[in-house]
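Recap from last week: sequence in, structure out.
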Amino acid sequence: MLPPSPPGWRLLRLGLVLVSIGAVLEASVQANSATGALNVLLIIVDDLRPSLGCYGDKLVRSPNIDQLASHSLLFQNAFAQQAVCAPSRVSFLTGRRPDTTRLYDFNSYWRVHAGNFSTIPQYFKENGYLTMSVGKVFHPGISSNHSDDSPYSWSFPPYHPSSEKYENTKTCRGQDGELHANLLCPVDIVDVPEGTLPDKQSTEQAIRLLEKMKTTGSPFFLAVGYHKPHIPFRYPKEFQKLYPLENITLAPDPQVPDGLPPVAYNPWMDIRQREDVQALNISIPYGPIPVDFQRKIRQSYFASVSYLDTQVGHLLSTLDDLQLANNTIIVFTSDHGWALGEHGEWAKYSNFDVTTRVPLMFYVPGRTALLPKAGEKFFPYLDPFDSTTELMEPGRQTMDLVELVSLFPTLAALAGLQVPPHCPVPSFHVELCREGQNLLKHFRFHDVENDPYLRSNPRELIAYSQYPRPADSPQWNSDKPSLKDIKIMGYSIRTIDYRYTIWVGFNPDEFMANFSDIHAGELYFVDSDPLEDHNIYNDSQHGEFAQSLMP
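Predicted structure tokens:
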């Protein structure tokens, strides 16, 4: 059975913050009647595809995230609902799909524009948790009411690192000795403004909050959002040494596929706006980027991932030191993936696996791993520069397809809270409900192994994604069209066997897709075409199959 979903999907179902903590803590402790409640540490990474050791990447050094995976349940096939920051984050933090939040861009606040939908942290807050936000959790700006959805979601104002404001400024030292706003921006930390970087500051703040939480009797929900590997690739330059250019390969499919409909292509305009990319004078929309520069982009992406890994390592090591690992659920995920030259594309902004597939893992003490013994450390800090560190295998993993929109009911269930009900259709008037599936059955390891009725039928599982376009051909705003400019919506369904995407007319005034107005289609079979390079939508041999998927 497919999950309840908005009308579009139903048609396609086949086809200084610390100072204020004291008072809040006191009130929270007095109000909280829960005993033995599990804390939650939710780690959200920006633009991270599953380029991690625990997902089988042999090049990337991510020992601390791999170590977390070794004690977790890892989902091999988790997918975002839209491959761009604000819509994805609002979707999984509210448990609703973009067609319900009505956010496809960055320019509206769902509580005003769609409905007064509850969020994951709001739900935990209403159930006696102290909820805290550090770094990029909600996308900042209009889409979270310039407040990260405060005061609804958080017990006190969210923390943003002060050095965040320098991310897109001229802080990258070029070969000419001058400062530039580049895409590739390895830095010497002592030379950057404030002598630090945003993710380092976020880790330090999160550690301070954990230390404060240790002294309280209140359960906490701490969300930590990391910026890297989001562009620009501004990271400590020493991480480049982990990835010599001679070891960096190109994407396995760096050419634009012949059968790719123009509407499906993203022209990576945000990449082109960086000074070092502008200097390459690359043609629009298809490029390509010179081969040597492609390698440098991939090098900096991987280096940024290893830098991120150290921050996760310091955070989890502190959790261990404070003896909080035995009563804290840890969730690690990303808002979406990122293309590194596959299909001749860079960045996100599409429906392909490389942009919609994300890492997703849950550590649940006593369930995904035995409770740590007295003095035992689950998460000692691991240095990615230590070549003797052996790759750790995931503790448990599942190949079942899942969606980020399932995060809300799953976290609620794991924490012992009442799981919000499935949303009716429509659900704009319902404040608390969810459109994702509760994944709790995946954590009943013994039951699943012994009870065939608890096992999923892989061919019944579907992950939905979508992406808007302003025109049939790539243009300056194809990557991030404003709502008023959206003319076409690409609805995509991913199963264990295939990815099927249909691009249809879309009315932004009525938020209505017209499935009789078909602009293009894509069909890729996973077994024979795992990289999604050979679109057979118009192939006469498979035309009948494609038509059978139509609403």
